[in-house]
Amino acid sequence: xxxxxxxxxxxxxxxxxxxxxxxxxxxxxxxxxxxxxxxxxxxxxxxxxxxxxxxxxxxxxxxxxxxxxxxxxxxxxxxxxxxxxxxxxxxxxxxxxxxxxxxxxxxxxxxxxxxxxxxxxxxxxxxxxxxxxxxxxxxxxxxxxxxxxxxxxxxxxxxxxxxxxxxxxxxxxxxxxxxxxxx
Length: 183
Hints:
Helices cover 29% and strands 32% of the residues. By secondary structure, it is an alpha+beta fold. It has a single domain, classed as Roll (Thiol Ester Dehydrase, Chain A), CATH 3.10.129.10. The strands form two sheets. The protein has a six-stranded antiparallel sheet with strand order 1-2-5-6-7-4.
């Protein structure tokens, strides 16, 4: 896979391979967008564009002061969590319904201080095997400065029956919502 090339002017827009239409995203990504995890919500995650064929996601984090250390910079663990979200969404583009991709390891390099505001993050898959995937990500500020890079390894886990039933229930509710919105 080719390395992703960040282009600020096109970031988060519909273009060759990228779609911004939630309806065109894989079901698991739509579900996570509709009902984000508490951690993702705390970070201010907003998914913008997906290129499913290339396994790339583009998102922003509307980072609040609550994510900062006492010197006004976003605490490094929060920066790592942002990159982890982007990389998890990227590998999640190709998962089957009922599968999750827990992070096995993550490495983050902090290149410049991240400050509150809109932070642009991208995640892409380097290689996907049968049981693990290798992912990378980058975090930028509003002035196109590269703030941090990350790489991770994730495993693929199929949920147990009770967890699958809960997901299926959420999927049925999503279909009902679609039917209701068409009326």
